[in-house]
């Protein structure tokens, strides 16, 4: 009977949380449709108030452009519309026609290649019209199956697709209640590993002499790669040596606590980083990879700080007990990263869980959350990136500031990059010290002090430190959305918000039998975007009746299977 109860509990949770839209009960919960106006008239607070922030948490997701998530957000610099129709129409490889930007409700997207060459090709001499051709080329070259678009040249190029507030309600709710930044650019015009190196050190380089910072040379596309990068090799690749200076060196020197939190799982390490997909590689707290490069920085080892690279579980514990470090970086695994083929819904649920934990923490009233995505993932964006040096900026990406002192409902139009995160941390905790070879005590030949770029805005403008602290905005981890599964993926994805077809076959059969239709008919209706609630109503039932009927059938099936 214990086995039966366990089986029913697992399946019941799936039906209760997923089929019904998955709303989690939480105090002070807001919905996607509530919140203040888009632009706040509140003036920015004085810079001296920055020290009210005792904890900075950087949550870094993967591979989305600003237009792909917020291109239709009211008041933002988004996709131009004419008579309700997107103006942007981007040509492909053929000379016939173009692909217009479109609302893509699919939970799983393909995206496009996103190396340095692809960034240049997408920008296309400031015309911003290379996205479709780059996706088409990548599809023909793709040889692995991590991304379902590999090897398939048919279908509408989804790099021109965008999601709206009905697809990603929690992200839009954060934007409405806190600060949305509509001119945040990737710091480097390249892919994930250089992006994470810039996030941590303001540079991406290749070093030729172990332990010698002066041997490092600029490497926008190909810094030293982790040994677990790409497919297994007969000859083990030696680990890279990141000998230049990173932010943790300055934090340690000034006794500022920090933590880098890794979610156990997989990450897509591509042997050809211009490809659209690759095989997943194990990612553990002390297993380095493209999203966890800190173990290869000399400073981290020399300062005996490797223990600061921890599991995500430790972050939740620190949040609960009010012991968050001064600076935290939180990185996902492949499943919840939103890096194709990671589901949009899975990433939103994961991020919501992390933010809810912070908002429930005793540390909330002194915390600033910087939520962003590491690169554009090949998806369309219409804004030409500014040029600050040979490395970037890269393409525009989504970003938000979430804090009790954030200017509620404000859209920040400043030119920003992830360099602004480093600058804020330095101003808050390090007295304005920069990663500057002339002054940081550990010289390296980096070409530029990124925090001092004249184009770079100041995140202090996103705060009003004189305001009464904003209350936590606790959101459902599995919100109801309009997302649908991709054609042909029924049974493989996640059956969740909005009725995406991803229930296991045994559940599909039980639900279909209760509705009096075949499993194939149920899958077909779910794949067309209908929710289970809508299908139940069509057959004269409530979702509660369907749930009870399906659970009864599953209970009988389990007893029959186990002989009792």
Uncertain segments:
1-46, 143-154, 488-503
> Portion of residues in helices?
25-40%
Label the structural class.
Answer: alpha/beta
> Strand portion, in percent?
5-15%
Termini separation:
8 Å
The average pLDDT is 83
Shape: globular
For the biggest sheet, the summary is: 8 strands, mixed
Per DSSP E runs of 2 or more residues, the count of β-strands stands at 20
In the sheet with the most strands, the strands line up as 15-12-16-1-17-18-8-19
Overall radius of gyration: 24 Å
The number of helices is: 15
Short structural summary:
Helix content is 28%, strand content 12%. The chain is of the alpha/beta class and 564 residues long.
Provide a descriptive summary of the structure in words:
With 564 residues, the protein is an alpha/beta fold. Helix content is 28%, strand content 12%. Helix 1 packs antiparallel against helix 15 (543-561), helix 12 (505-515) packs across helix 13 (519-527) and helix 12 packs across helix 15. It is globular.
């Amino acid at each position: 009977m214990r086995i039966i109860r366990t089986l029913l509990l697992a399946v019941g949770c799936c039906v209760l949380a997923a089929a019904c839209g998955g709303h989690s009960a939480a105090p002070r919960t807001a919905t996607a449709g509530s919140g203040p106006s888009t632009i706040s008239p509140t003036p920015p607070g004085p810079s001296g108030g920055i020290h009210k922030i005792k904890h900075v948490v950087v949550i870094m997701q993967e591979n989305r452009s600003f237009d792909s998530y917020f291109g239709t957000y009211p008041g933002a610099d988004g996709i131009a519309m004419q008579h309700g129709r997107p103006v942007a129409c981007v040509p492909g490889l053929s000379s016939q026609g173009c692909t217009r930007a479109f609302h893509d409700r699919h939970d799983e997207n393909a995206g496009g290649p996103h190396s340095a060459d692809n960034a240049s090709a997408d920008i296309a001499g400031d015309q911003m019209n290379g996205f479709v051709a780059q996706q088409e080329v990548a599809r023909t070259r793709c040889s692995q199956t991590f991304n379902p678009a590999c090897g398939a040249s048919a279908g509408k190029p989804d790099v021109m697709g965008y999601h709206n507030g009905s697809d990603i309600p929690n992200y839009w709710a954060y934007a409405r209640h806190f600060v949305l930044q509509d001119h945040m650019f990737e710091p480097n015009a390249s892919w994930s590993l250089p992006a994470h190196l810039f996030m941590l050190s303001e540079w991406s380089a290749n070093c030729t002499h172990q332990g010698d910072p002066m041997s490092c040379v600029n490497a926008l596309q190909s810094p030293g790669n982790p040994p677990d990068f790409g497919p297994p090799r007969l000859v083990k690749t030696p680990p890279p040596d990141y000998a230049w200076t990173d932010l943790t060196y300055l934090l340690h020197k000034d006794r500022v606590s920090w933590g880098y939190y890794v979610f156990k799982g997989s990450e897509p390490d591509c042997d050809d980083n211009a490809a659209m997909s690759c095989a997943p590689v194990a990612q553990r707290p002390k297993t380095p990879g493209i999203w966890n490069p800190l173990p290869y920085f000399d400073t981290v080892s020399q300062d005996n700080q490797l223990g600061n690279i921890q599991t995500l579980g430790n972050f939740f514990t620190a949040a609960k007990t009010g012991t968050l470090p001064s600076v935290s970086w939180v990185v996902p695994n492949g499943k919840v990263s939103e890096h194709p083929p990671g589901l949009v819904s899975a990433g939103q649920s994961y991020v919501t869980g992390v933010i809810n934990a912070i908002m429930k923490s005793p540390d909330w009233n002194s915390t600033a959350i910087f939520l962003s995505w590491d690169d554009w993932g090949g998806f369309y964006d219409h804004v030409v990136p500014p040029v600050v040096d040979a490395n970037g900026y890269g393409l525009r990406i989504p970003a938000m500031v979430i804090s009790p002192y954030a200017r509620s409902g404000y859209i920040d139009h400043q030119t920003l990059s992830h360099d602004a995160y480093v600058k804020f941390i330095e101003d808050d905790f390090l007295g304005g010290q920069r990663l500057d070879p002339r002054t940081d005590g550990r010289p390296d030949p980096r070409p530029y002090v990124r925090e001092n770029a004249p184009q770079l805005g100041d995140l202090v403008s996103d705060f009003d430190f004189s305001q009464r602290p904003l209350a936590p905005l606790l959101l459902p981890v599995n919100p109801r959305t309009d997302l649908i599964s991709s054609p042909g993926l029924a049974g493989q994805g996640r059956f969740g918000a909005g009725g995406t077809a991803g229930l296991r076959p045994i559940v599909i059969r039980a639900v279909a039998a209760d509705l009096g239709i075949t499993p194939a008919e149920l899958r077909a209706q779910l794949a067309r975007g209908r929710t289970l609630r809508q299908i139940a109503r069509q057959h004269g039932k409530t979702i509660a009746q369907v749930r009870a009927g399906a659970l009864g059938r599953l209970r009988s099936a389990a007893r029959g299977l186990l002989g009792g």
